Amino acid sequence: MGIRKALVLLLLASALAAKEREYRGRRVNVDEPPAAQLSGHVPLRPVEGEVTLDGTAFAIEKGSTGPRVATSPGGAVLAPLASGKTVTFKWKDGKGAAREAVMRFEEEGGRWGRHAARGFRYKIADEEITLLDLDADGRFDIGRDGFLAGDSTVACPLVAVIVLGRETVRILSLEPDGSALRAETAPVAGTEQQIDAMVALNRLRMQHGLLPVPLDEKLSLSCTAHARYLAMNHWDSSTNPHSQSLGPKGASPEGEQAAKRSAISARAPVDAIASYYLTYYHRLEMMSATLPRIGVNAEPPGLAVVDTGDGFADAPPAEGAEAAGGGPAWSDPYFVPADGSVGFPVAAIPEMPRDPVPDMGRRGCALTMYFRPPGPGIAGFRAELVALNGRRETRVPFLVADRGGYGWVYGIVPEGPLRGDTWHRATWIYTLDGKEVRHAVTFKTR
Question: What predicted TM-score, i.e. pTM, was given to this entire model?
Answer without folding.
Answer: 0.91
